[in-house]
Every structure is written in C-alpha cells, then in structure tokens.
Amino acid sequence: MADAKTITVDQLFAIDGLLDAEEREIQQTVRKFAAERLRPHVADWFEAGTFPAREMAPELGSLGLLGMHLHGYGCAGTSATAYGLACMEMEAVDSGVRSMISVQGSLAMTAIYKYGSEEQKQQWLPGMAAGTTIGCFGLTEPDYGSNPGGMLTRAKRDGSDWILNGSKMWITNGSVADVAIVWAQTDDKVRGFIVPTDTPGFTSREMHKKLSLRASVTAELSFDDIRLPEDAMLPEARGLSGPLGCLTEARFGIIFGAIGAARDCLEAAIEYSQTREVFDKPLAGYQLTQAKIADMAVEVGKGQLLALHLGRLKDAGTLPPELVSVGKLNNTREAIKIARECRTILGANGITLEYPVLRHANNLESVLTYEGTAEVHQLVIGQALTGSNAFR
User: Fold this and answer.
1) Catalytic residue selected from 91, 299, 371, 375
2) How far apart are CA 167 and CA 142, in angstroms?
3) Where does the record place the Acyl-CoA dehydrogenase/oxidase N-terminal domain (predicted)?
4) Angle at 36 between CA 34 and CA 42, to 5 degrees
5) Which of 88, 225, 324, 380 fits as disulfide partner to 256, beta carbons 3.0 to 4.6 Å?
6) Which of 74, 107, 130 is the last residue of a domain?
7) Range of 139's domain?
8) Is 206 a catalytic residue?
C-alpha cells in the first residue's frame, strides 16, 4: 500500500485560513529572512556564545521588526497578531534572536512609547525602530527577579538632577546597548529612567558560561553615582505597573515564540524519523514514534490556536493580563516538553548542533522562567479564579 500524503502541523490545524493576507505575507517574509540570514549561522553563534547584534539590528529594523506593533516614529504599526507571528518565526530559529527583538521593541521601545514624553519619543524611537540605536531594559537584579518591588537600585534627587546607583542582572542587549531603560526606587515609588550607556558611571559586563540563550548578548549593568537630567525620567510611569506593563507586552511575544521553537523541533524530528532506518525500516513507520509525533502535533496546534486567540483579543483591546499568563504558562511549558520528546526521536544525533532540538530545549529552560516563572503565572491565574492573593 502506498504511503499517505504528508501534511504540516499548520495544515493539520488549518492555521493558514485563520490569518488575513497581510498576516500571511508578514509571516512568510519573516520566515524567509530567518531561513536565509539567521538559520545558517545560529548553531555557530550558539556554540561560540555570541550574537552579532550590531550587525543584525539594522537588518531587523529595515525589515520592520523592531517595535513593529507600535505606531508612528518610524515603527511599522502592524497588528499585535502580526507581531506575534513574527516572533513565532524568529524563535523557530532561536529564542535568543527573538529575545533581542522582544527586548528592543516590547520592553525598551514600549517603555518610551507608553510612558515617555513626546520629546523622549521623538529623540529615541526612530533610531530604535531602524536598529541604529539598540536598547535594553534594566529591571531584574541579582537578588530580585520575581519580586522586583524589592529592588535596591535607587535614584535620588540632587537639585533638578537625579543620582542613580545600583545594578541590574540578566540584561539582554546590555553590553551592546546605546540606551538603557532603568527602573529604580525613588521617594515617589518606582520610576523609569532613560540612561544613555555612555553616561559616566554606567558600566556593563557581558555574562559568559551560559548554557542557555547562548546566541544572545546578556550582561550585568552597574550604576555608580550616575547623574541624569530631570527629563531622563519617564513621566507617565509611577510604581511597578510601568515595568510590569512592558513585561506583559513581551510575554505576548513569548506566547507565539515558544510555540515556534516547538514547531521547529517537531518538524526536525518528523524529517529525521522519515529518513532514519531502524531494524530495516524508517523510524517513522513505528507506532510508538507516530504516537509521539501525533501527541506533540496536537500540543503545537493547540498552542498556535491559543496564541492566535490571544492575538485577536489584543488587537480588539480586550486581552486581560491573566490571559497573557495563561498563554505564557501553557506554551512555554508545552514547548519544552516537546523539545525534550523530539530529542528522544533523534537519539544521540539529538544532542548535536547539527539538529536544533537540544539547542531549543536549552533555550526554553530560560524562556520558561524569564518574564514570569511558571509558578508566578500559576499564582496570577489562581488569584483571578479564586480572588485570593497567594504571592505572600
């Protein structure tokens, strides 16, 4: 009997029919760019523990990917769903590449866009959209991750200026950035500051020996009596709602991105199983292999449908933050399970950089916990359902 015609996971769930023409075009354009400019090099970047951010940022900017869901100031002004689909295609190549785009657009640029003055927007956003100016987002500290309200970084008034002291850790783009959005305690709650990285007293140290997100620049930032003018402060952000609002934007991209990594793992495992012979027939011809593939395809498809549903809600302006937690919790959790299961199909070959699955699995270890751990999102969802705050 002849083998049946094969289909992709997207075709299994009829995903294409859920997208409009512009969304399909953006997704295909980003997929093509990623295949031609990123995928041939990403294994080498991962092995070397580097990413050519300075080289790639202008290319990403010219493609319209930086701050693409923002409007004006040189930004593309796409829908949130289109931005999510771009994140999916970027993370299908590598989580580190998607992180660079998320930090630039959803964190640093969004902070200025949502909370900055018109002068601040005009000064910084066009260059950041073009990729000629790279930004980073300084919230996490060595001892304050899930509980940023305890941060030690502090800004004090000195006449009309601010004096900034403290440190931040695990900062994507930190050592290559031209500008940092730094969150600090003040006498008037947590406030955000736009800090050019050439300001005296600003130092960055790139972090090495990472086992995850190796194709990404990660740094520790230090602030030693940095003097900032009064207009360095973001005027519309007061309290933790400012940085947490930016994180909600970035988490939205992760919902799409993580499932892109899972899809890439599954595609690699399917292709491998079709050509790898075990006991005189392809690995794909065994029931246990097909059971694994079927189960993973169902979870990838469900994750895609969830992401698209949340994208439609966001575009309609009706996406509550607890649903972002649902998406981040589910899609990162399922993605890392899929990456690990795909590795079992590839056997020993799965631990090499010739195939993407263990690289994705290592990256997803970080994606699972950054911008809100699984446990934090469980508590967000639990509070929404029960009305009880269990964080303390």
Assistant:
1) 371
2) 8
3) 21-131
4) 65
5) 88
6) 130
7) 135-232
8) no
